[in-house]
Amino acid sequence: MSDDAHQRTGHERAPGRRRRRFPEISSRAYEHPADRSALVALRKLSGFDTVFKALSGLLPERSLRLLFLSDSVRVSERQFAHLHSMLLDACYILDLEKVPPMYVTQDPQPNAMCIGMDEPIIVVTTGLVELLDEEEMRAVVGHEVGHALSGHSVYRTILLFLTSLALKVAWIPLGNLAIMAIVTALREWFRKSELSADRAGLLVGQDVRASMRGLMKIAGGNHLHEMNVDAFLEQAEEYDSGGDLRDSVLKILNMLPRSHPFTTVRAAELKKWAESRDHQRIMDGHYPRRGEDKDTSVTDSLRESAAGYADDVKSSKDPLMKLVTDLAGGAGELGDRVRRGFDGFRSPPPAKGDASGTDEK
After folding, report:
1. What is d(CA 37, CA 163) in angstroms, rounded to the nearest whole number?
2. Cα distance between residue 152 and residue 39, in whole Å
């Protein structure tokens, strides 16, 4: 825990190391490019928040707040004191002035969320609290505080409202196609916002191995002695590079209904960011401040988002992504790969002089 936060809470459950604080940090510092471009565009729409907050009476938010207040345990100095200490510490490190209410709700499924339009609420399940150790849980609390700082709770609620509204007009011809397009785009943004929040969790916990362990436990349960972080990351590598075009299509179909990226993918993405120059610059104190947010260009953000997707495609070892790269680059062997069918995208083309296809004498 940071020194100042330690003095405020009086708790002794602090890690035996010092962690950096990031005064006035803008959420743009850690947001995934696709997440950041969407948020910048929404924030630039004049009156956007005002209009939809006026519609908040149509949403069950007040009912939801009362539900958690009446049927969950509110985190405080007297209840789940160690989580309260972590929450204060995460808000201190990310310089979030108003500490959001936090609740623990009885649910064996490990989960956490940040919701609400007027004010964010953080909710964690008992399954998650029982699953993670202190440093792993610190990253999760930082993850949810990152959602609050980015304003994800506001925009998620708004977009969920719009999706609900779209479902009511499903009877319109081609309505299902339109709704699927909205839902697909919405879930893609959700997945990128989760990658952003994972980065915020790392900035709070400042222990990449703890973040990795937490994701691994969410995937495999509380059997840490049976698991290995490096082997878990190797799964992500195998997932990205294995198979052929059929597997690439199956990956897309498996991902479409999900609001979160797969855990191995999240772990690999977080490790990649932790080793990046962007992360190091933040740790060195060089990051965008909130006071600069109003000057952010939507065009520049969209350009960064497009560049981010392009980099993902170029660096991916997935057969479909390789095909996209080949099409963009006009690779000479593309035609040969197509002629060889699915296997052509699973294995490299035969080397010149290779006797494959002929009987050896």
Report:
1. 20
2. 8
One pLDDT digit (tens) per residue for the chain, 361 residues: 545 444 444 433 444 568 999 999 999 999 988 777 666 665 555 555 555 555 555 556 677 788 899 999 999 999 999 999 999 999 999 999 999 999 999 999 999 999 887 789 999 999 999 999 999 999 999 999 999 998 888 767 666 666 666 666 555 555 556 656 666 666 777 788 899 999 999 999 999 999 999 999 999 999 999 999 999 999 998 888 776 777 777 877 777 777 788 999 999 999 999 999 999 999 999 999 998 877 666 565 556 655 555 565 556 565 555 555 555 555 445 455 544 554 554 555 555 455 444 444 4
Residue located via tokens 């310089």: 95
Q: Which of 144, 188, 292, 360 is catalytic?
A: 144
Q: Report how far residue 272's alpha carbon sits from residue 278's, in angstroms, rounded to the nearest whole number.
A: 11
Q: Locate tokens 């498996």: which residue?
A: 254
Burial of 142 (0-12, 13-18, 19+ CB in 10 A): buried
Tell me the CA distances in angstroms from 100 to 95, 96, 180, 250, one per residue in order: 13, 9, 33, 39
The vertex-214 CA angle with 131 and 194, nearest 5°, equals 115
Tell the burial category of 329 from Cβ atoms under 10 Å away from its Cβ (0-12, 13-18, 19+): exposed
Give the closest residue to 31 by CA, choosing from 15, 42, 17.
Answer: 42
Between strands 73-74 and 102-105, the pairing is: antiparallel
Entry pTM? 0.75
Active site residue 333: no
